[in-house]
Amino acid sequence: MSILDSIILGLIEGFTEFLPISSTGHLIVASQFLNIDQTAVNKAYEVIIQFAAILAVVFNYSDKITFKKIELWKKLILAFIPIGTVGFIFSHQIKELFNVNTVAIMFIIGGIIFLIAEKFYDEKKAHIDDVEDVTYKQALIIGLAQITALIPGTSRAGGTILGAMFVGLSRKASAEFSFLLALPVMSAVTGYDLLKHYKEFTDTNFLVLGIGFVVAFIMAFITIKLFLKFLEKFTFVSFGIYRIVFGIILLII
To answer: How many domains does the chain have?
Structure first.
């Protein structure tokens, strides 16, 4: 992997990780377009840029990551359990779905669902605008919705945001709950992958690794802030349209 490849993938990971457009799907497509083989070393690189995205959430929400917010984190851990359990049990079957065709189809399906959800969603009826007011029942339902993210192209952020909107969270609260839920989910995935691929780091170009990490962190940090600003004025319709168009293009080419 070259430095340019590292920068491109870092930008893609940082920009797409917390948007409802599937970072995994974009990385699969980008890797094939750049002719980057899914070797153990390159998979180790993806682990590092995912870790950079996690840190972006920590820096953006440092006020939420304290013992004073233990009640919130109990709900986030509860929401994590469904995807953690299903992902662990069916990990081998899930890996077989990692291909461009699956990504394209799920992009289109996810886009259609977002358009339908926005048609019936009424922001005025959404009664929760603060993630700390989420109930345990709502957290569990959001966690169940997150299971859909195990299919490449679906989007972890997309599944959790739709689940949160369904149980009565505002668009902003839905996005923020999704950001925070990324911490236990991505920490578990990253930790597992680090244990699995730690030997590959001895053969890694640390300059390439470091550049990708910094690029992914900066892009993720900025994207989180801009995304919340975007939701103050706009809906998720544009993301639904983007998903459908992107999925169709992938199927064509």
So the answer is: 1
- How confident is the model at residue 187, as a pLDDT? 85
pLDDT at 179: 94
Q: What is the mean pLDDT of the chain?
A: 89
pTM of the shown model: 0.88
**DSSP assignment of the chain:** --HHHHHHHHHHHHHHTTTTT-HHHHHHHHHHHTT----HHHHHHHHHHHHHHHHHHHHHTGGGSSGGGHHHHHHHHHHHHHHHHHHHHTHHHHHTT-SHHHHHHHHHHHHHHHHHHHHH--GGG--B-SGGG--HHHHHHHHHHHGGGGSTTS-HHHHHHHHHHHTTB-HHHHHHHHHHHHHHHHHHHHHHHHHHHGGGGGGS-HHHHHHHHHHHHHHHHHHHHHHHHHHTT--SHHHHHHHHHHHHHHHH-
Residue 63 structural domain:
3-252
| 236: number of Cβ within 10 Å | 25
Q: Tally the C-alpha atoms within 13 A of residue 124's C-alpha that lie toward its C-beta.
A: 0
| Structural contact between residues 75 and 83, judged by C-beta atoms closer than 8 angstroms | no
Residue 203 dihedral angles phi and psi, to the nearest 5°:
-105, 10
